[in-house]
């Protein structure tokens, strides 16, 4: 049977990808951010996932305002990246696993989550940058991937409570896959940030620290927030926190924290990193 080896959540700021491309990881601006990934790499070496379910939000590369699914899932054997600007090199295609994806789709549908199924899906920086942080080597990402995109762009957005329920259903879907497969769940985005408008550059360390503690102890507390409350507390792009909630909820109620880091700012964003495992 498939088994979730754990969960990683990390920011997906495009400037990180540009810094990787330029080899700036050890520069003073970047070191406090990249330095925190050594522990993640050591943990990945230990748990050795074979597949990654990546919960992220597309920013207009695949979906635009004319047609924007609340939840979408890739069901293909390959996903392509494309030029979004930002100084990001286009990444080589990512391996998918259509059979695993369709199992997830069937299970989620039976669990009353009807995701838009995508047999072609361009994946943007919110998918590529975190995978590069986890597996920084040159060339192709070494694990099979399943992209799961959540609308955090065009309101109305799914509530945090709905995203928590999706994560629980995703956890059940992964655990019921009959093939032996070690699965990492990756949630990308956040933490507090606002990229435009009067509050551009807004960051709320207190709220972010509360969120990181609640990810371990009480994710239901985060699910009680409304989207407007998260916008107020974390900025208009801080709503990417819902991707973290989906990933967290795929794990069981009791988790152990393997590693975490919080660093402010990278670009306009408070960057948060967490590695959690199911507690025995
Ligand atoms: C930034 C953050 C994001 O989440 C994003 O999608 C794009 C840019 C930033 O901080 O620059
Ligand atoms: Fe983003």
Main sheet?
8 strands, mixed
CATH topology: Protocatechuate 4,5-dioxygenase, Chain B
N- to C-terminal separation?
Answer: 18 Å
What do we call the CATH homologous superfamily? LigB-like
Strand content range: 15-25%
Instruction: Give helix % range.
Output: 25-40%
Describe the structure.
This protein has helices at 14-22, 31-34, 37-47, 98-110, 125-134, 160-175, 205-217, 219-223, 227-234, 241-250, and strands at 2-10, 51-56, 71-74, 78-79, 94-95, 116-118, 144-150, 181-188, 255-266, 269-278. It has a single domain (2-278), classed as Protocatechuate 4,5-dioxygenase, Chain B (3-Layer(aba) Sandwich), CATH 3.40.830. Helix 6 runs parallel beside helix 10. The chain has ten helices and ten strands. The mean pLDDT is 97. The protein is an alpha/beta fold and 280 residues long. The strands form two sheets. An eight-stranded mixed β-sheet has the order 6-3-7-2-8-1-10-9, with helices on both faces. It has a two-stranded antiparallel sheet with strand order 4-5. Bound molecules: 3,4-dihydroxybenzoic acid and fe (iii) ion.
What's the gist of this structure?
The chain is α/β, with parallel strands linked by helices and 280 residues long.
């Amino acid at each position: 049977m498939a088994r979730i080896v754990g969960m990683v959540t990390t920011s997906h700021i495009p400037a990180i990808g540009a810094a990787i491309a330029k080899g700036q990881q050890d520069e003073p601006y970047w070191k406090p951010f990249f330095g925190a990934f050594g522990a993640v790499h050591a943990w990945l070496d230990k748990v050795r996932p074979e597949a990654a379910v990546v919960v992220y939000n597309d920013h207009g590369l695949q979906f635009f305002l004319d047609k924007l699914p609340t939840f979408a899932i890739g069901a293909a054997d390959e996903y392509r990246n494309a030029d979004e600007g930002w100084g990001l090199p286009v990444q080589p295609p990512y391996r998918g696993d259509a059979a695993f994806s369709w199992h997830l789709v069937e299970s989620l549908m039976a669990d009353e989550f009807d995701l838009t199924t995508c047999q072609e899906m361009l994946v943007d920086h919110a998918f590529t940058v975190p995978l590069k942080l986890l597996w920084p080597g040159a060339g192709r990402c070494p694990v099979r991937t399943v992209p799961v995109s959540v609308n955090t762009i065009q309101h109305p957005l799914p509530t945090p409570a709905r995203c928590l329920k999706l994560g629980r259903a995703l956890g059940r879907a992964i655990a019921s896959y009959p093939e032996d497969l070690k699965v990492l769940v990756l949630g990308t985005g956040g933490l507090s940030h606002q990229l435009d408008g009067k509050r551009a550059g807004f960051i709320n360390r207190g709220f972010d620290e509360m969120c990181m503690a609640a990810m371990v102890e009480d994710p239901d507390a985060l699910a009680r927030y409304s989207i407007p409350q998260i916008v107020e507390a974390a900025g208009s792009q801080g709503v990417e926190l819902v991707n973290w909630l989906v990933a967290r909820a795929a794990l069981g109620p009791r988790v152990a924290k393997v590693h975490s880091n919080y660093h402010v700012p990278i670009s306009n964003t408070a960057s948060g990193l967490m590695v959690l495992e199911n507690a025995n």
